[in-house]
Design brief:
Layout (H helix, E strand, L loop, with lengths): L4 H9 E3 L7 E4 L3 E5 H14 L8 E5 L9 H17 L2 E3 L6 H8 L6 E4 L13 E4 L2 H8 L4 E4 L2 E8 L8 H12 L7 E6 L8 H10 L7 E3 L4 H9 L19 E6 L6 E3 L7 E3 L10 E4 L7 H11 L9 E4 L4 H10 L1 H7 L3 E2 L19 E4 L15 E4 L2 H10 L27 E2 L4 H4 L23 E8 L6 H4 L13 H4 L11 H8 L2 E5 L11 H8 L2 E6 L4 H9 L3 E5 L13 E4 L2 H7 L1 E6 L4 E6 L4 H9 L2 H8 L1
Parallel strand pairs: 3-4, 3-6, 4-5, 6-7, 9-10, 9-12, 10-11, 15-16, 15-18, 16-17, 18-19, 21-22, 22-23, 23-24
Antiparallel strand pairs: 1-2, 2-8, 5-20, 13-14, 21-25, 24-27, 25-26, 26-27
């Protein structure tokens, strides 16, 4: 039996385990990346492990999230990250150099290599044939120290593309179509491989848009073959030597196969407040638009921006619309400027923002009250924009331009002729904003600089054989990490200050949660299906740890968040009988007894002391995960076991 692309890379990096779907495997990690919203904590954890130099082939620290410096906090964290990177062997991408996923694709990604990043959209690297996965910061810290990255061996899905996209239909529409088909939880436990004759019509930036958005499916990652299109991209970046051809075997076996004819697709749009709430743009034409944002790690490549410039040339945006442009990297911005395309964009009335994540994480440019904002981003969760009642739609750059020009949601085909652009054979290479680390001898004398906003890692709590606690919060399906630990300009600067962050935890769902959790001392949370979807931010586990949460019981969990809970020493548990979810009420006094025996058998009994009921909970932990929980989390476990 042949192998898929992902299986080939896994086989070449397998340290422990068998490649049987559902079993735990350990992988050697070649590259890591962090960004500043998660990186500060990741490097504090790396320092706590006590290893002097990173063991990976390449680790890069990016500054792209917390670039809005309204106080000392973000600037201090950037100085900390730069100094720790210099000392420990990590490359440092300065503020303004660009969004981690765009820059990594341009300058560092290599087909056939493994990459994990403390950002859930790390699968962008799958656009050039990397096995690139989002992970919690502590997992990244362990990998930087030479440790393995543990995952459940995924199932393999194949999406066969045929035909060719019609004018004004884009890779973003392909992403929205697969979300329409599978939903935000349809990829859980799977790697999605893209193939078929249709992929030959897609450039690397288009492929990267698709693999980036695969995160919204809940997939472990997404991947394209590495072929002549990949080779041309790497050669244009001056990295032709990094090319490796990769394709699946003709007799590879997949757990699911989905066929999409590109020629049948139309411009699509994801309506509030979920990426899978997809319909045709033509079905909701005429909806008044207040704001349009073009950029983010999903659609900020040079080709995207050149198409935008071509469509805006000679046009003026509607007076009632505010339009922002965020190029994905300094390389993109430089080439837009030298070609004159930036002038065409600015002449339309657009506002140029920094080469950073910006509005995608609520870091500025929030919409007006109850405003309609069309964004070329990857997420439209309620409140993520920074405006609680903002209505965010996800669209392609072409559909975004149409909305900005006409002032309403408009089928982009009404803009006239499709833009015709040409990509230069060579990109403008300037790595001056990437600071190389010191060598091992120089590093010894270097000092790591810490600002007053950096607080210690929260206290760990080993799982005990009996746990009694109150149910302090009950939530529904598809709870995101934005619900648990919101982003935004007011909160993100405190990512290295867990005590301060704690006052915002779950306030989107219950304003009194922090107060109630503190009063309870230790507590349980109950959730529905797909609990913890979205960002890889480990703060969504570390802050509940700080507030005394000992276990989360849900119908099902998103992959990265479940791993982060275990890493924090919090037990993720699933209802054996999903109907038991309805029997629990916020405020119930609960108890788990004989926890260790239950962990070994795979079933733990939850006693509801308030209602005199018992429920069975599934805990399908590996021996390693049991040991992590009993140690109080991955950090103390790593210290104990080296």
């Amino acid at each position: 039996m042949g192998l898929t692309i992902a299986q080939k890379i896994i086989k070449n990096h397998l340290i422990e385990g068998d490649m049987i779907p559902g079993s735990e495997i350990a992988l050697k990690i070649d590259q890591t990346l962090t960004q500043d919203a998660t990186g500060t904590m990741a490097y504090l954890e790396f320092e706590a492990i006590g290893i002097d130099r990173v063991k990976t082939e390449r680790s890069v620290a990016y500054i792209d999230h917390n670039t809005l410096q309204c106080g000392f906090e973000n600037a201090d964290d950037h100085i900390y990250i730069q100094s720790v990177a210099k000392k420990h062997g990590i490359y440092f991408s300065r503020p303004g150099n660009g969004i981690c996923h765009q820059v990594h694709l341009e300058r560092f990604g290599i087909p056939g290599k493994t990459l994990i990043g403390s950002d859930s959209h790390t699968p962008t690297g799958g656009g050039i044939g990397m096995l690139a996965m989002g992970a919690g910061g502590l997992d990244v810290a362990v990998a930087m120290g030479g440790g393995a990255y543990y995952i459940t061996m995924p199932k393999m899905y194949k999406v066969n593309l045929t035909g060719k996209l019609r004018p004004f239909v884009t890779a973003k529409d392909v992403s929205l179509e697969i979300l329409r088909i599978l939903s935000v939880k349809g990829g859980v436990g799977a790697i999605i491989e893209w193939g078929g004759e249709g992929i030959k019509t897609l450039s690397v930036p288009e492929r990267a848009t698709i693999t980036n958005m695969g995160t919204e499916l809940g997939a472990t990652t997404s991947i394209f073959p590495s072929d002549e299109i990949t080779k041309a991209f790497l050669e244009a970046e001056g990295r032709g030597a990094d090319f490796v051809a990769l394709e699946s075997d003709a007799d590879a076996v997949y757990d699911k196969i989905i066929d999409i004819d590109l020629s049948t697709l139309e411009p699509l749009i994801a309506c509030p407040h979920s990426p899978d709430n997809v319909c045709k743009v033509s079905e909701i034409e005429g909806t008044k638009v207040d704001q349009v944002c073009i950029g983010s790690c999903t659609n900020s490549s040079l080709s995207d921006m050149l198409k935008v410039a071509s469509l805006l040339k000679g046009r003026t945006i509607d007076p009632s619309v505010s339009l922002s442009i965020s190029p994905g990297s300094k390389q993109v911005l430089s080439m837009l400027t030298s070609s004159g395309a930036l002038t065409d964009i600015l002449a339309s009335g657009a506002r140029l923002l920094e080469c950073a994540c910006g509005p995608c994480i609520g870091m500025g440019f929030s919409p007006n009250s109850a405003g309609v904002s069309l964004r070329t981003f990857n997420r439209n969760f309620l409140g993520r924009s920074g405006t609680k009642d903002g209505n965010v739609y996800l669209v392609s750059p072409e559909t975004a331009v149409a909305a900005a020009v006409f002032g309403t949601i408009t089928d982009p085909r009404k803009l006239g002729s499709a833009p015709e652009i040409s990509i230069p054979e060579k990109y403008a290479i300037d790595d001056s904003a990437v600071i190389e680390p010191a060598n091992a001898d120089e590093a010894v004398a270097l000092e790591v600089k810490r600002g007053p906003n950096i607080k210690p890692f929260p206290d760990c709590h080993p799982v005990t054989d009996e746990i009694e606690a109150k149910l302090v919060l009950k939530v529904g399906d598809n709870i995101t990490t934005d619900h648990i630990m919101p982003a935004g300009a007011k909160i993100l600067p405190y990512r290295s200050n867990i005590p301060h962050l704690s006052q915002y935890c779950f306030t989107v769902c219950d304003e009194k949660f922090p107060e109630n959790a503190k009063a309870a001392g230790q507590s349980f949370i109950v959730g529905g299906s797909n609990y913890g979807q979205g960002s890889s931010r480990e703060h969504a586990a570390l802050v509940p740890l700080y507030l005394g949460v000992r276990a989360v019981v849900a119908k099902s969990f998103a992959r990265i968040h479940a791993a982060n809970l275990i890493n924090a020493g919090i037990m993720p548990l699933e209802f054996k009988n999903a109907d038991d979810y309805d029997k629990l009420s916020q405020g119930d006094e609960l108890a788990m007894v004989n926890v260790y025996a239950g962990m070994d058998s795979g079933v733990i009994k939850l006693v509801n002391k308030t209602k005199s009921e018992e429920y069975e909970l599934i805990c399908s932990y590996t021996d390693r995960q049991k040991s992590i929980l009993k140690a109080g989390g991955l950090l103390p476990y790593t210290k104990l076991n080296g």
